[in-house]
Each structure stands twice: as structure tokens, then as C-alpha cells.
Specification:
Number of helices of chain A: 1
Order of helices and strands of chain B: EEEHEEHEHEHEHEHEHH
Distance between the termini of chain A: 41 Å
Oligomer: heterodimer
Largest sheet of chain B: 5 strands, parallel
Shape of chain B: globular
Strand content of chain B: 15-25%
Strand order of the largest sheet of chain B: 5-4-3-10-9
Largest sheet of chain A: 5 strands, mixed
Structural class of chain A: mainly beta
Strand order of the largest sheet of chain A: 2-1-5-3-4
Helix content of chain B: 25-40%
Chain lengths: 67, 273
């Protein structure tokens, strides 16, 4: 297992996990979200081949009501 | 339906029938929001980009209540206080909309705020973020104050539209300095009459929208005035009508204001002398 931070919170995830594995582990709908890895957007076409490393900073965002 | 009603609002690569842009925040329920969006007849709706709530993944998404084939989504960078955060937020919003195959993936409503109390924009950071986003291929719709010089700088930096605030966000004070909006319009449209200028923020009621359009603005963006009205459905309809009314009036060549009366009925043929 490795430690990463997702939306500011610490999270344990299996070593060698991809962004796609992370989304599955969190039971999120990938259609409605965007992922940033260490301040760079990971395009959804690359979720399956982008591997996470210890201490990675992940942001997972979605759309909400706003003006 | 007048001939003017079919003149579309052009914003960069986009064309819309409605000149009213409405936000999706602050509604009591998603169902009420959806109904008000429909009543407003808006084609463009704004949304915010926020962290996914990881503890409540069963929660409903606003996207389940928005017809993505009907609306062009305009993601904002609301809540950002630095150019860097605004640029990151814009890129994340684009990534979501690309995945949803919504035409809104091409643009962003840029807000870089300076102060939590007033929610006034930080002009220096807004200009910096505009430059970065334009070079990153975004069509930037830029929330700014009603300062005409800043408006001109933002246009020069490549903003697709400059969107001066009528008054502070959510304040409902309407257009506090119409002369500044007039000067913004004059400067931004000089030699470029089709450059779109949108009043964004401060609208309280229908007459504010009509007034903005009568000043010569190309559109109005509002959220709180509908969402927080006691009857949001009625206000959504009022805003829709006001936007059309103001636009038609602005293009009608209104009469000049005079100090004294001019009779509407003939002065000859009266039975009395």
C-alpha cells in the first residue's frame, strides 16, 4: 500500500494503482468528474495508464450549482 | 416575435437565441432549479467546479438535472483568489465538459476575487489569468468591475467578452454606476460594434435586466435574483421577459427626454375653444 492525498485527505491505495483504480475504489462516477495529479489535469483517456506514486496529491472535482 | 428576436447573441464561437445567462446556484432543490432554467429560456447556464464529496458518493449530481443537449454549460472559477487557482479550476472544468461532450468545454467564466466581503474582482490577477487562459486556448468571459480602463485591458488581453458587474455579486443593488457601463460599452465596442458586453452580477429584479439591455449590453448574467426570490418561477419568467423587452427597446430608437410635455392627441378639432 502507498499513501496519497485525495482532495486534501490522506488515503491508502494499493501500490501500482492507476487513476482509474482510484476512481473505482472511491465508487465515483467517472463521467461527471475531472482529476488533477500534482496540479496537472489527467485527461480521462489517460486514467487507465496513469500510475499513482506515494505522496501524490490528487484533486477530484465535479460540477455543482454556481453563478 | 420581432426580427430582432432572431438576432443571435454571439459569444466567441457560440451563438444563442437567448441573451439571458443564468446561474444554477442557491436553489432550494435541483427540481426547482431545472424548472426555473426552463422558464428563463436561457441557453447558457453557469456552474461551479468543486471537490467531489468522497464521503457521500450516493448524493445526487446537478448533472442529473441538466439537459446537456439543450444547454451550453459555462463553468466558472468562482471562489478563486489567485490567477493560478483560477487557471487550474478552468482546466478542470474543461476536462469535465470535454467528457460530457458539451460545447461549453471551449470557454470559462473567469472570476478572480480579491476580497470575501465585497467579492470584488482582483484586477491584476484577473488580467494575468486572462492572458494565461487565452494562450491555453480558452474563450474567456471575464467578470470584472465596471472600470472602463480595466475592461479595455481585458479585451486587449484577448477576452472573448468583458462582463462588468452592475454591483457586488448577489447584492441585488442593480446597476449602481450606469455611466461606467456606458463608457465600458463605448470603449469596448469602438470600431468593433459586435464585441459582446454582458452585465454580470448585482441584478435584483427585472427592471435591472431591462436597464442593462437598454444601456446597450448584449446580455445579462444573473443567479441569486431568481434563485433567492420568494417565488423563483415567477422571477425567472420576469427576467426572461425583461431581457427581451430591454433588448427590443434598446434597438427601437427611444424618444429623447424633454423637460416639457408634448400632447399625444391632435390639438385641432377640439369642441371647445
Amino acid at each position: 500500500m502507498i499513501s496519497i492525498r485525495v482532495n486534501g485527505e490522506p488515503l491508502q491505495i494499493a501500490a501500482d494503482s492507476t487513476v482509474e483504480n482510484l476512481i473505482v475504489q472511491l465508487t465515483l462516477n467517472p463521467k461527471f468528474l475531472a482529476v488533477e495529479l500534482n496540479r496537472r489535469v489527467v485527461p480521462r483517456t489517460e486514467h487507465g495508464r496513469t500510475r499513482l506514486a506515494a505522496d501524490d496529491q490528487i484533486e477530484i472535482v465535479t460540477l455543482v450549482g454556481g453563478g | 416575435m420581432s426580427e430582432l428576436d432572431v438576432t443571435p447573441l454571439r459569444l466567441g464561437s457560440h451563438k444563442f437565441a437567448s441573451r439571458l445567462i443564468v446561474g444554477t446556484g442557491k436553489y432550494a432543490t435541483f427540481e426547482l432549479m431545472r424548472e426555473c432554467l426552463t422558464i428563463s429560456e436561457a441557453d447558457v447556464i453557469t456552474v461551479a467546479v468543486r471537490r467531489e464529496r468522497l464521503v457521500d458518493s450516493a448524493g445526487r449530481s446537478i448533472l442529473d438535472f441538466i439537459d446537456l443537449s439543450r444547454y451550453t454549460i459555462l463553468p466558472n472559477t468562482a471562489g478563486c483568489f489567485t490567477a493560478d487557482d483560477a487557471v487550474r479550476t478552468a482546466r478542470l472544468g474543461r476536462e469535465i465538459l470535454l467528457g460530457l461532450e458539451n460545447p461549453g468545454a471551449s470557454w470559462v467564466k473567469l472570476e478572480v476575487l480579491a476580497d470575501k466581503k465585497t467579492l470584488l474582482p482582483d484586477p491584476v490577477a484577473t488580467l494575468e489569468a486572462t492572458k494565461q487562459l487565452v494562450s491555453d486556448g480558452f474563450e474567456v468571459l471575464c467578470y470584472t468591475s465596471d472600470d472602463p480602463i480595466m475592461a479595455r485591458r481585458l479585451k486587449d488581453a484577448g477576452a472573448t467578452s468583458v462582463m462588468p458587474a452592475g454591483s457586488p455579486i448577489g447584492s441585488g443593488q442593480g446597476i449602481l454606476n450606469p455611466n461606467n457601463i456606458r463608457i465600458c460599452l463605448e470603449y469596448l465596442k469602438e470600431g468593433d460594434p459586435n464585441y459582446p458586453v454582458i452585465v454580470d452580477a448585482g441584478v435584483g429584479t427585472a427592471s435591472d435586466v431591462a436597464f442593462a439591455m437598454e444601456l446597450g449590453c448584449d446580455g445579462v448574467l444573473l443567479n441569486t435574483a431568481i434563485a433567492s426570490a420568494q417565488n423563483p418561477r415567477l422571477m425567472a419568467e420576469a427576467m426572461c421577459l425583461a431581457c427581451r423587452a430591454g433588448y427590443l427597446a434598446a434597438n427601437s430608437g427611444r424618444i429623447p427626454k424633454r423637460l416639457y410635455a408634448t400632447a399625444s392627441s391632435p390639438e385641432i378639432g377640439l369642441i371647445a375653444t
